[in-house]
Amino acid sequence: MDTDVLRKLLGRFKLPDLRQALDEWGCVAVDGEVFVGGGPKRGVVDRVVRACQGQGEEIGLEELGTLDLVYNKMYSRSRTWNAYHFTGYKKKQDDSTVSADVFQRSLGKQLFFYFRHILCVRQHNDALWVWLMIQDKSSTVWTPSNIVHMVYYPASPYIFTSTMKAEYKKYIIQALLLTLGYSKAQFMDLSGRDVESLAELAKRKHSQKGSSRVRLNQEDASPESRTSRKRRKQDEESENEDVIPEDAEDRQWREDYTRETFGDEPQPILENVTYKLQASFKHGGVAPSMDDQPFHMTVKFSGSNVLEGMKALGPAGLAEPPFPSYLESLPHVGKNTILLAERRKPGDGDDGGN
Description:
The protein is an alpha+beta fold. 40% of the residues lie in helices and 19% in strands.
């Protein structure tokens, strides 16, 4: 047992979460005395390590990997997740891939053709959480740079992964395709720290056709939503019954537009949204020599939740509705890196071979 790695993994947990983590891990039985008296987290961790050493059962790389998996499930927002969409389903629907044990065996068989590895899979709610460590050549030591975390929602064509080394990425993706029965995987230009929000945004993109306004109205048309809106409006009116806003009509229009575009429910969490503009420079009489030269620009929005920030712009009077289509479609476009390219007329940029 590598006690240094074990001590480091245990030390990453917040002390109030450590008991729950050990219960989920299931590789060591500790009594309440380990946590009695509180004290520094280091002391508690040392007592847990001694309990592991004294139980007589070897804690190897697979058990350490499972502990790391538990940590990343509990603190999933500590890393960035990347969304992939699988297409070209080739085999009949089979519930066997839903089971964590069967999924682990199936994926392990495919990965075996490419490299030595250690694989752990656990089910949490409706998702499979996957921990994978690639073993270079004959290495049998803990190699954090070779670890990949994945979250897969069974019966869906999406998987969310941590950053993968370029040298392993195509093999891991190929193994996933063969395990799940798809023919192609595509990065969705969608990434963030809240994996459940990414799953919601991916589902929005592919689940329904039509405009964002129609879809979001359907999602938020519950009696609770309508009742809460009515109650909020009544409360505001009762608190300000002596105040007559001069811009009441404009405010109502902004609120209606925001509700139709974004819905009433809290938006999925996205920490970053990036727009990349690729167009031709228009000099406007200032720099004619640069006219029609390539013009590239990148604009990045960052915050605790960019979608909620966009939603608040209209009611706050910081932006004038209606928004441009590239902002209006953001809740359902299923990506947060968006390319805005200039539409060219037929023949533009075609020199006919001259």
